[in-house]
Design goal:
heterodimer; A: mainly beta; 6-stranded mixed β-sheet; 3-stranded antiparallel β-sheet; 9 strands; B: mainly beta; 7-stranded mixed β-sheet; 4-stranded antiparallel β-sheet
Chain lengths: 106, 120
């Protein structure tokens, strides 16, 4: 089945920029979605269709793709952004695939 | 507002059954593809099952095929997951999730989750 690869952890200081990568074969042909999950809470959609933001999500969150990698970028990182982040795509066998997750430490 | 509320979780012995329910409100349930997604302790989310808006088309992740059944009642805005022959590895938080009209659409609304613990 399709595999998405994320770094286990990313650490940034408040006010800096965090970049979380998501690698997958031929990911350029897929729509990538990103979710934020804080401890004890359900995941929340923060970026969809590679780079669009749902209403209510700050403009500090953005998404992009290049080659076989999608990237979630969080500008001017705040302490409240500390969470696990997951990328997700619709896979190749009528399955929906999540990356392994990245723990963002601020 | 848009809301998904799961129920039916609990502690169950291996081999037994459990039925999860999800009450939807705030949107036209009968127009939307719905999913069950689970998350084992300390792990990332895992898609479990999907059902089309009319309830005809269903897909399952390999590990639950033949054991789990997804269904829906559009007249009562409710999604179900019948889980039979439960295994220890089915232990997880189970989320009811709203999709779109296409498989590539994101999971835009998640319920708060219901905990299923399989243990002897």
């Amino acid at each position: 089945s399709y595999v998405l690869t994320q770094p286990p952890s990313v650490s940034v200081a408040p006010g800096q920029t965090a970049r979380i990568s998501c690698g997958g074969n031929n990911i350029g042909s897929k729509r990538v979605h990103w979710y934020q999950q804080k401890p004890g809470q359900a995941p929340v959609l923060v970026v969809y269709d590679d780079g669009d933001r749902p209403s209510g999500i700050p403009e500090r969150f953005s998404g992009s793709k290049s080659g076989n990698t999608a990237t979630l970028t969080i500008n001017r990182v705040e302490v409240g952004d500390e969470a696990d982040y997951y990328c997700q795509v619709w896979g190749i066998n009528s399955d929906w695939v999540f990356g392994g997750g990245t723990k963002l430490t601020v | 507002q848009v809301q998904l509320v799961e129920s039916g979780g609990g502690v169950v012995q291996p081999g037994r059954s459990l039925r999860l329910s999800c009450a939807a409100s705030g949107f036209t349930f009968s127009n939307i593809v719905m999913y069950w997604v689970r998350q084992a302790p300390g792990k990332g989310p895992e898609w479990v099952a999907v059902i089309s808006s009319d309830g005809v088309t269903k897909y399952y992740t390999d590990s639950v095929k033949g054991r789990f059944t997804i269904s829906r009642d559009n007249s009562n805005n409710t999604l179900y997951l019948q889980m039979n022959s439960l295994r220890n590895e089915d232990t997880a938080v189970y989320y009811c999730v709203r999709g779109g009209s296409r498989p590539i659409d994101p999971f835009d609304i998640w319920g708060q989750g219901t905990v299923v613990s399989v243990s002897s």
